[in-house]
């Protein structure tokens, strides 16, 4: 009789250990705010239209609702990490593909920013499917054109979300052509890894074991056949490379690894990392048959 209440309490504790939601106002820069629907209420999304420009100007952002002269060649859906916010999203990796018209849409999951709902791991996984479906529906409303290739880009916890979407979302097998995953965490193993630093840390193991399959990156990766880039911070102490490797080993599709030397979990890439990242992005374009539009 006590099993279900105990497991519910463990899930509650796991959410508190993993998630770092904020609702404060954050400057969203050049991005445009868009509200998409989900089963939990409105999902706040921020978008950027990164279009080819022969003079390499700032991204040309449409005046209203992402509408531009031509439909994009690529739709990039981004999933931030546990403390991330869509307002701070960059145009990466669109900024490395100046010959490709790209829309970059980043969500705030339930409980983050102005997205409705409570922040829980299970709710984030379910809402991510709604975000994917609503993004495709909105694109179809905006353009009388076939859906372009879709890439999913995840950072840290956002990798588990992106893998879940790729594994189970309707249309994922045809719409999603690739993934870019930075420091993907097997969440339960990461929680146990961090718990080792504290006395009686093993007491947290039953809490970590309560992780739902929908946010289990190893489980989801085994069902994902789309090609993936794995960006791995070599000095990551939160999600060590050996734990990230377990997600890579489970991934069922083609992949390429980009080791980000000397970077910790939240480290910022610089010029020394860009050549390998560009090479990997070019590989993913070839794998996903992404057309290249000549610059004027």
Entry summary:
The chain has 296 residues and is of the alpha/beta class.
Explained architecture:
The chain is α/β, with parallel strands linked by helices and 296 residues long. It has one domain (3-287): Rossmann fold (3-Layer(aba) Sandwich). The chain is 32% helix and 17% strand. The protein is built from nine helices and eight strands. It has helices at 3-18, 121-142, 157-168, 172-175, 187-195, 205-208, 217-221, 241-250, 274-287; strands at residues 32-36, 43-50, 74-79, 102-107, 150-155, 176-182, 228-233, 255-260. It has an eight-stranded mixed sheet with strand order 1-2-4-3-5-6-7-8, sandwiched between helices. A hairpin with a 6-residue loop joins strand 1 (32-36) and strand 2. Helix 2 (121-142) packs across helix 3 (157-168). It is globular and about 55 Å long. The termini are far apart. Mean pLDDT is 89; it is low at 53-65.
Q: Which strand-content bin applies to the residues? A: 15-25%
- CATH fold call: Rossmann fold
The CATH superfamily appears as: Alpha/Beta hydrolase fold, catalytic domain
Distance between the termini: 69 Å
**What string gives the helices and strands in order?**
HEEEEHEHHEHHHEHEH
Discrete helix count: 9
Q: Given the C-alpha coordinates, what overall shape results?
A: globular
Can you tell me the number of structural domains? 1
Q: Any idea of the CATH class? A: Alpha Beta
Largest sheet: 8 strands, mixed
Coarse structural class? alpha/beta
Give me the Rg, rounded.
19 Å
- Across the major sheet, the strand order is 1-2-4-3-5-6-7-8
Summarize the amount of helix as a percent range: 25-40%
According to DSSP, the number of beta strands is 8
| CATH architecture term | 3-Layer(aba) Sandwich
Mean pLDDT: 89
Uncertain stretches of 5 or more adjacent residues? 53-65
